[in-house]
UniProtKB/TrEMBL annotation:
CDD domains: MFS_NepI_like. PROSITE patterns: MFS (PS50850). Keywords: Cell membrane, Membrane, Transmembrane, Transmembrane helix, Transport. This is Major facilitator superfamily permease. The keyword Transport applies. Its main location: membrane. It is found in: Cell membrane. The lineage of its organism: Bacteria, Bacillati, Actinomycetota, Actinomycetes, Mycobacteriales. InterPro entries: MFS, MFS_dom, MFS_trans_sf. Belongs to the major facilitator superfamily. Residues 1-377 form the Major facilitator superfamily (MFS) profile domain. The chain crosses the membrane at residues 36-54, 66-84, 90-113, 125-143, 155-175, 205-225, 237-255, 267-285, 291-314, 326-346, 352-373. It is a multi-pass membrane protein.
Length: 389
């Protein structure tokens, strides 16, 4: 569990290292907001494309080997991003390659936890892993933003790369051998069949849709909230970047959601989390104190929902769990890439109220998904109890 905490820190501090610097790319390098957002979407899009193939390879060659290779290559590429100059296409290309190699870690981390831990501790372990993801995302955003006060954008990204490398080394030192992994022969048709079967299962299929829509709205909000803070409230870039401290709300909620699930169940926890997520979106229309409170609630609600859904996928998929986890993550990062990129066009074409209306469409959709899942699982539990009686 501790090793997975550090791999989350290493991977996600690298994945989102450019997000807090989007206004800097616009002001200093002449990028459009959409081009700047592509430095994030390219990484998450490449990750989405690679997460399923790498998950399949892990079924044959093992989780640990893939995790280590991913961490090492990703940190090397992190040092290359600030060295390519101010060419937007070169930066986007390196970021895409970085996202591709980063895919190895999230592709198998959840499957590793599902295989190695008992079901009664899995929600807490999954919450700790997601907490590491949030802390990694926080450091990846705050460190370059803070360094902008003393250096240029290149120095800021180099500093972020050093921190990612440190976390990667700790992960490699702490990673234990997996005890329950059983390699299997790779058969393309059987892997495709497993993916299709997970989509045919209404529970896992809707959780995949949540990952797509929920993460798409989440990353879109964080891509452009700093523009709102700078343009509407006049905050300097370094101060606006402190909004990413709200990720600590996600760290707190994801680390504790396992206890709530054990008490109230996946369905109620999921719905409550999404309600907070939606409320936070609406609050960003208010004045600065209300906006900041809304971002706190929005972040806490999203990561609680994400942690709940991550563990729920592992339990709803009674076999081929690695494929189920990788499909969830494919949808998660596809949402980040596709919806995040489209959101740049929406942001440029409308005002903040229009942008929030656009984001709210996604929150309504995921709330409907949560209500359906809760109703279905409650009915299934009642039927199982009746059969047992």
């Amino acid at each position: 569990m501790v090793a997975m905490l550090f791999v989350g820190l290493a991977i996600f501090s690298g994945l989102y290292s450019t997000q807090a610097m989007l206004p800097t790319f616009v002001d200093e390098l002449g990028f459009t907001p959409t081009e700047a957002a592509l430095t994030v979407s390219a990484a998450t899009g490449a990750l989405a494309l690679c997460v399923v193939p790498l998950s399949i390879l892990s079924e044959r060659f093992g989780r640990g080997r893939l995790l280590v290779i991913s961490a090492v290559l990703a940190t090397i590429l992190a040092f290359m991003v600030p060295l390519v100059g101010d060419n937007v296409l070169a930066i986007i290309a390196i970021r895409a390659l970085q996202g591709a190699v980063l895919a190895g870690a999230p592709a198998v981390a959840m499957a590793w936890l599902s295989e190695e831990l008992d079901e009664d501790v899995l929600p807490r372990a999954m919450g700790l892993y997601i907490a590491g993801n949030t802390l990694g995302g926080l450091t990846g955003r705050l460190i370059p933003t803070g360094l902008l006060e003393f250096t240029g954008w290149r120095g800021a990204l180099l500093g972020a790369a050093v921190v990612s490398s440190f976390f990667a080394v700790l992960f490699i030192i702490l990673l234990p051998k997996q005890r329950n992994f059983q390699p299997k022969q790779l058969r393309f048709k059987s892997e495709i069949r497993a993916m299709v079967n997970h989509w045919r299962n209404p529970q896992t299929g809707l959780l995949f849709v949540f990952a797509l829509l929920g993460m798409g709205a989440f990353v879109s909000m964080y891509n452009f909230i700093t523009f709102r803070l700078i343009d509407r409230f006049g905050l300097p870039v370094t101060l606006a970047g402190l909004v990413f401290l709200m990720y600590l709300a996600g760290t707190w909620s994801s680390a504790r959601v396992g206890t709530i699930i054990n008490r109230y169940g996946h369905g109620r926890t999921f719905i409550g989390s999404i309600v907070l997520y939606a409320l936070g979106v609406i609050m960003t229309l208010g004045p600065l104190p209300v906006l900041l409170a809304g971002m706190f609630i929005f972040t806490a609600g999203f990561f609680a929902a994400h942690s709940t859904a991550s563990g729920w996928v592992g339990q709803a998929a009674h076999k081929d769990r690695a494929e189920a986890s990788s499909m969830y993550l494919f949808c998660y990062y596809a949402g980040s890439s596709i919806i995040g990129a489209i959101s740049g066009l929406v942001f440029e074409a409308t005002n903040w109220a229009g942008f929030i209306g656009y984001i709210s469409c996604f929150t309504v959709a995921v709330l409907v998904i949560g209500l359906w899942l809760h109703k279905t699982t409650t009915r299934q539990a009642a039927e199982a109890a009746a059969v047992a009686a």
